[in-house]
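User: Fold both of these, please.

Assistant: Here is the first one.
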Amino acid sequence: MTTPANSRTADAAPAASRQILALNAFDAARPSDLPPETAALVARRQRSFGPTSVLFYDRPLHVVSADGVWLQEADGKRYLDVYNNVPSVGHCNPRVAAAVAKQVATLNIHTRYLYDVVHTYAERLLATFPEGLDKVAFTCTGSESNDLALRIATAATGKRGFVVTEMAYHGNTTAVTDVSPSSRPGQPLAPHVRAIPAPFGPGDVAGRFAADLEAAIADLEASGHGFAGLLVDTIFSSDGVAADPAGFLAPAVEATRRAGGLFIADEVQPGFGRTGAAMWGFQRHSVTPDVVTMGKPMGNGIPIGGVVARLDLMQRFAASVGYFNTFGGNPVASAAALAVLQEIEERGLVANAADVGGYMLARLKALGQRHGEIGEARGAGLYLGVEFVADGAPAPEIASYVINALRGRRILIGAAGRYGNVLKIRPPLIFERAHADMLVEALDDALASR
């Protein structure tokens, strides 16, 4: 499953590739045995949303409340949430809820006025970054953050070309969709974008990824677009979770800088302690990005995102274009994000991700010894992937079966990867070993029952 390093299409095998939103999606056109109340709610949603409605599972879930690592359905059933990384410190976290309630009852306004909470949060956030990454701009979403990062890189380099991985997903603005091949399988990439294979083994992962990048850079230069930067999610989540060996990104970052480009680390998925090694996913690779982007988990469900970069890059961008985000870093969002950061730091959730994630990965690897369908279990901290295969080939049908079988066992999970055959495990950071046991035992039972 390798395509040329300077691939100009979002997928060399579009029939096999899975659009990210189509993974485990409910298909309203297929006959189903939905309960009358659920069927009525689905119909109501479709009347309003039309083709933009995307639901999970063969039988969509009607959730009414949540707490910690649990979601509750309308009929009272509770589900262990192994999918949602947005409530990073747990659903309805008391500290976050209290901070939001207090702030929304006090002040919520745009950022052209002075108010303490956004300054306090900015200072606390920047303190988690390596020296030199000392300026932040707040947004409302990861999509906005990545859009802004692309603009910063273009302003800094005077070039338009970007390199991403073949199944990358970085958001849904026009500019960011251009650098998100997983959103447009089989379609030609934008002329200024090149997609390279994700860094999976075996062999010299670091050297191969750097060589593919260098070939893509050369193609961008030859085409006249030039090279502005490398944009990667440092856990390669949409590609199917690529974490090891730690440090493999370093040669690619060196190649990026030799070519005059910027390294943009998309930390929406791996950031805020999820990989268990440090606060940020890029730190596992002993590299320092030029620009870092953040989003979803930052506010535990309250919309906030951010871009952290060096002063010189921010100055160059600000000199070339005015930038203002009405709700980016508003008082309520900042209060939520500050509470999230406090929870991560004070409850030792980075260490918890390392401990529980390591324990769970070991159990999943052991499970693979008993079930041949498991090609590999991999990942870091509380971002893990379980790849399913059949006769040595990707098996998305097994992943789809498992997702719905686990739903029947009251566990929620999703899929990722080029073929949609990788279980994506990214629970709230408060996940415990007992919860990991529930998942592994349910997965064991589901595979044994197939």
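And the second sequence with its predicted structure:
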Amino acid sequence: MMEKYFVDHGDLSKEELLELATIAQTSPGAIAVNLSVLVGRRIRGLKGALVSGIGAVLPALILLSLISLAYTAFQTNPLVRQVLKGMEAAVAAIIVDLVIDMYQSLRQQKQPLLLILPILAFIANAFFGVHPLWILAAALVIVLIGGKKCPA
């Protein structure tokens, strides 16, 4: 859609759009927001980046605000509570599936450190109450130190 709008109107070349899309994908955050900000900046400078960023975020913000208002109005409704309970089970199943996929992917890399770290992180958080930020910091240090010894 962006290609049709910006390339066909002559605002960007196809190569420029692909370059910006690559940068947007490697930057932290939502790709659509990143790309909107980058395209806005390229075409209209800082004001374009600001307007593009707001335009990319505002619809979702409004929608989530409305959903939040609806939730607070209906959170005591027994039917809504049952639906949310059912969704909890579905989300748990999705997380378990994701963990299994990640484990299989890590097993193929043949690096025992990568298999052990998630287990240690779970134990540290679930049984010893270690804050997730400390776990992430420790995992980063362990991977950086252990990564030099493990083949890539």
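The chain has two domains: 1-109, 110-151.
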